[in-house]
Every structure is written in structure tokens, then in C-alpha cells.
Amino acid sequence: MSAPRSIVVQTAEAVRKGERTAVEVCEESLARIERHDGALNAFLYVDREGALEAARRVDEARAKGEPLGPLAGVTIAIKDNLCTRGVPTSCASKILEGWRPPYDADSVERLRAAGAVLVGKTNLDEFAMGSSTENSAFGPVKNPWDLSRVPGGSSGGSAAAVAAGLSQASLGSDTGGSVRQPGAFCGVTAVKPTYGRVSRYGLIAFASSLDQVGPFTKSVRDAARLMEVIAGHDPRDATSLEREVPRYEAACDEPAKGLRVGVVRSQVEAVEDAEVRAAMDATLDALRDAGATLVDVELPHAKYAVSVYYLVATAEASSNLARFDGVRYGLRVSRDDLVEMVEETRAQGFGPEVKRRIMLGTYALSAGYYDAFYLKAQKVRTLIRRDYDAAFEVCDVVLSPTTPTPAFEFGARTHDPLAMYLADIFTLPPSLAGLPAFSTPCGLTKGGLPVGVQLTGRPFDEATLFRASAAIEARLGLGEHEARAFLGDKA
């Protein structure tokens, strides 16, 4: 195996030099979407005319000698819980079907300003609540590596689109693992930034203290370029912090020699899947070969992360989703009585998983249970963050599996919510601590399914994660083993 091509970087450079036109690049993506998305269902909306118009503007700017942005002509898909002006944004829910926002999310604005061509909106678990993208009101997304398996969730459409080459990059959102877990299942680089590094303005909220926007790409360097574009302070988001954005691409060239990698040995050993364990062992060998030092660390309170997350996140969801009431926008089921209208609108508009989480969160916040559940969960959340603080005293990054298994088959966990929730057992602790965490491909199973390794860093130290991820990619990257081969298209 070898490191994959940096498609984003190479495309932007080719367009800048005039070796390719942005329209050509756009037409290629649109053709692949038309050819393959019927099998994948990765897109909820393809903005063909908007994409071609954006590509033409890039080509016209170059013809006039105007400077081009760092993503000039690069095709990017956007998870459908990020607002896009005049383009449908549904959160994969019947309650917002057909809604067209009057503004762009901050991350979308930054992509447009950088010359990116946005080709459409991708499918997801409804309101980003799920680990398999089986909860979409508009049908599940298929994993391009094996169409009988899930792509992960909730950003399954964004991960599948990049894995299958339908777009050169994409944006997702990560609340408890919704970028990293599908990144592992689909064999692509997936980045969850530090909480506050990327603006949440225009991201339709699920759990406000956890949600973050992050990119999917085929290579670590491509992810670094996207992060340089979307990161930065935004005064419209009260949780956006004023921090200088480093040169993440430069970090990809720094050697891993001397890097201290903290291995969460209990999490690695807890993995029962032999092929995931083998991929973890290969990753540790690769880092050792690159000159990194491995040290064992422990996160004593990580075992409570699932319980804590499904109290904190559902409580915040019950509050955030109260705004969808049929009064201001989205679905409205007509009834003579206002209360009946709201009840019927929400009953018909929300799917089963969203209703389950709203009810769990409302219960946790109710009188008599707030202290016992929600407040206690927040206290344990603090302990999880302190565990990481202690680990970072002896290491620079923390390593664990991204997921306990490769992608599972459709229907395997839909009737057991707890089994589904446990798919995120390793991605939840960094989310609760607000830390940056990446999933980097580190191998394939004998059956040809990708495996990902998770690296977690100190607050706002994404640069070190790019450095470590690049070292893993150079030795274990999937290279030309691309998911598009599984669609019968090797071109």
C-alpha cells in the first residue's frame, strides 16, 4: 500500500496553472454522481447548475489574471445539516423537507471564497442522530466498498461521496463521532477539530456543546488544506475562539521522529475483531518505524462516555429541536387547534430515532431527575477531560481504534439501540472533552473493508495530529485501493 494522491491540492494547482479548467473538473464529478449515486444514495440534492456556474466563475477569474483561492475548482459535497443559501437543507428529515435557507453556514462561505465548487448536499442520519445513516428519512446510504454494509454515521453520505470519488472532498459534522466513524468505515481521512476551532454558524444544531464541522478527504494533506480554509474565528458563533490558524499543510511534512504517542492499551485490547486488532498492531509498528516513541496511557473514566454522551447530547437535542414546531418554517400539518397542529407536525415530521432522543433528553432535564442524570453526566464529562490532561503530560497524541469493528451489515443493529450506540464507544471521549481527533485509514481487512485509527490531540493542536497522521498514511495508506473499484469503475 502507499499514500493516496492529494487530489484536492493537485486539482487546485492544475486549475491555477491552466492545465485543467474548473468546468472540466466539475463535469467529471457530476458525471460520476449521475453514474453511481443511484447505487449509493449519498446525495439528497445535486446542484448541477449552481456548481457549473461556480466553476465558470473560477475559470473566468483565471482568464482575467485574478488570484485564485487555495481550493480553486475543487469539488466539494456538503452534509445536509449545513445551511446553503437557496439550496435545500433538510437534515434528512421530513420536518425540513424542501426548506431553502436564506444564508450560508460560515464554513460554506469560506469554501466558496476559496474557490471551491459545491456540487450538492449529502445524506445523513436524521438531524445527525445515528451511527449508520440508516435513520435518514430519504433512505440509507450504501458503503462504496461493500454495498451490503453501512457507511457509518451520521455523515455517511459525505464519507461515501469522497470514498467513491463523487466529490474530491466533503464536509460533515461530528457530535460524538459522526465524521470519524464513517471516515473509518469508508476508508477516508476524517477530521474533528477542537471545539471552537471551526464556526458552528449555519450548522443546524443537534447538541450545541459538542457539534463541530470537519472535512473528509482522500489524503491527510488534502484535509490539512481544507482545515486551513474553514478554521478561524467567527463573531457570529459565541463559541468560536480567536486562535491563529497554523499552516497545517506544513505540519504534514514534519517527521514523526521524537513524537510521543500515548496508546490507550485498554481500548486496543478491548477490540474483539481480530482484523481491527491486527491493523492497530500494524499502526503501532509503523509509528515506531517512523521514529515515534510509544507510551501506554489510560483514560479511567472513558468507560462512562457512552452513558454521559447519551444524557448530555439528548438533553441538548430536546432543547434545540423544540424550534421545529410547524409555525415558522418546514413541515406544517394543518389542525384547527394550535397545540394539535404542533403535536401532529412533530409526530409526522420526526423519525423514530429523533423522537427517542428527544424523549430521553426531556426526561433527563425534567424536575427530579436533572441532578441525578444531566448534572452528574456533566461532572463525569469533566473527569474525562482531566484524564486526557493527565495523558498529555507524558505524550503528544493519544492513539486508539476509531471503531471496534469494520463496517457492519444493514439491519445488524437497527433493532438494538444500545448496540448501535456502542459503535461510537471510542469516538465519544474526545468529543466530550472538546479535543481534536482524526480518523486515518490504516489498512484493509481480508474482505476488503477499511479500518481506521483514531488520534486525539491537545486543544487546538491539530497540527501535531496532521504530523502523526501523515506518518501513518505514508506507511499504511490505502493508496490505489479505492472504493470506486467496488463500483465497477477503475478509471
Any overview of this molecule?
The chain is globular. Strand 2 (75-79), helix 4 (106-113) and strand 3 form a beta-alpha-beta unit. The mean pLDDT is 96. The protein has helices spanning 7-17, 22-40, 48-63, 106-113, 156-163, 180-186, 220-230, 248-251, 265-270, 274-289, 305-320, 338-349, 352-365, 370-391, 417-421, 428-433, 462-476; strands at 43-46, 75-79, 117-122, 169-174, 189-192, 212-217, 260-264, 293-297, 397-401, 437-444, 450-457. The longest helix is centred in the C-terminal third of the chain and has 22 residues, at 370-391. Helix 10 (274-289) packs across helix 17 (462-476), helix 11 packs across helix 13 and helix 11 (305-320) packs across helix 14. It has an 11-stranded mixed beta sheet, sandwiched between helices. The protein is 40% helix and 13% strand. The chain has a single domain, classed as Amidase signature (AS) enzymes (Alpha-Beta Complex). It is α/β, with parallel strands linked by helices and 491 residues long.
Element layout with pairings:
Blueprint (H helix, E strand, L loop, with lengths): L6 H11 L4 H19 L2 E4 L1 H16 L11 E5 L26 H8 L3 E6 L33 H8 L5 E6 L5 H7 L2 E4 L19 E6 L2 H11 L17 H4 L8 E5 H6 L3 H16 L3 E5 L7 H16 L17 H12 L2 H14 L4 H22 L5 E5 L15 H5 L6 H6 L3 E8 L5 E8 L4 H15 L15
Parallel strand pairs: 2-3, 2-4, 7-8, 7-9
Antiparallel strand pairs: 1-3, 4-6, 5-6, 5-10, 9-11, 10-11
